[in-house]
Design goal:
The structure is a single chain. The protein has 329 residues and is α+β, with helices and mostly antiparallel strands. It has two domains: 156 residues, 2-Layer Sandwich (60s Ribosomal Protein L30, Chain: A); 155 residues, Alpha-Beta Complex (Phosphoribosyl-aminoimidazole Synthetase, Chain A, domain 2). Helix content is 32%, strand content 24%. Strand 6 and strand 7 form a beta hairpin. The longest helix has 17 residues. The N and C termini lie far apart (71 Å).
């Protein structure tokens, strides 16, 4: 009997089946700027209508949150997480997401599972006016065990050069607004899984995996609304490293983000993790978002307007003079 690619563990037919399952849905994310269809060697996206455009890009994955999804056979939210982790980063600079590409690796491809993951990306792209224009599915027996998947993505956005948000306009007296997270998002799951090893245990009346797998919140529509109505001086996406590591990335020298810990609305699941794991509060703030998915820095005169535009946004601090770029008080 002669050797074949399938005998080595790679089933090309399953790959073709995956493309068939996602092709029409992916096409629904396309607009007139997308110049070719899924299946080409490269993806083409035409840029028009900008005076001095700057491309902003970001790449990321879902991390070990995937383990929760795979062990509980819940795949629909993971694609949303993958898109959100990439898109939320570029939104911090005022960029509109243009297009997204994904990378899916596995030990043995299952077309139904792969399609379910990609359909999450499709949903997220649609909600954020972004085109899913390409991707790669890699079946790698020997590298991954059957049933294992890894997911990563790459997002490109655009912003006018004179509208780039980079924190340089932040000044003393500016206010820091919190945009709530939907939960852990996609960070800190190695610790989460250590403290909550049983994904089926009950938490607040349902299996805890339902809470853990709530998708990463997407912030483009909220930020777009703010940018259309007020001047935004700085935006920080609160991912791995929490407030402690991410807020300082946008604070100019000589200034400090003074954040009132008491004002932060910490989700119950994070309080339960802290209590059960006997975790120090500063360790929590340096690992998880603690309920704050993004921080937005604005002039004090815009605070009431922000609250009207985004009802669940709330004040957590202000910019003061100081050598420490962040103070939790």
């Amino acid at each position: 009997m002669s050797n074949t690619y399938k005998s080595a563990g790679v089933d090309k037919q399953e790959g073709y089946k995956t493309v068939d399952k996602i092709k029409s849905a992916v096409a629904e994310t396309h607009n007139r700027n997308v110049l070719n269809n899924l299946g080409s060697f490269g993806a083409f996206y035409e840029i028009a209508g900008y005076k001095n455009p700057v491309l902003v890009s970001g790449t990321d994955g879902v991390g070990t949150k995937l383990k929760v999804a795979l062990d509980t056979k819940n795949y629909d939210s993971i694609g949303i997480d993958c898109f959100a982790m990439c898109a939320n980063d570029i939104v911090c600079h005022g960029a509109k997401p243009l297009f997204f590409l994904d990378y899916l690796a596995c030990g043995k491809l299952d077309a139904d599972i792969a399609a379910e993951i990609v359909m999450g990306m499709v949903k997220a792209c649609k909600d954020n006016e972004c085109a899913l224009i390409g991707g790669e599915t890699a079946e790698m027996p020997g590298m991954y065990q059957p049933g294992d998947y890894d997911v990563a993505g790459f997002c490109v956005g655009i912003v006018e050069k004179d509208e780039v948000i980079d924190g340089s306009k932040i000044k003393k007296g500016d206010k820091i607004i919190a945009l709530p997270s939907s939960g852990f998002h996609s960070n800190g799951f190695s610790l989460v899984r250590k403290i909550f090893p049983n994904f089926n245990e009950e938490f607040e009346g349902k299996p805890i995996h339902e809470t853990l797998l709530i998708p990463t919140k997407l912030y483009y529509q909220d930020i777009k609304k703010l940018m259309e109505n007020i001047e935004v001086s700085g935006i920080a996406h609160i991912t791995g490293g929490g407030l402690i590591e991410n807020v300082p990335r946008i604070i100019p020298e000589g200034l400090s983000a003074k954040i009132t810990e008491y004002d932060i609305k910490v989700p119950n699941i994070m309080l339960e993790l802290e209590k059960r794991g006997n975790i120090d509060r500063m360790e929590m703030y340096g690992t998880f978002n603690m309920g704050v998915g993004m921080t937005v820095v604005i002039d004090a005169k815009f605070v009431d307007q922000v609250r009207k535009l985004i009802p669940d946004a709330y004040l957590i601090g202000e910019i003061v003079e100081g050598d420490e770029k962040i103070q939790l008080v």
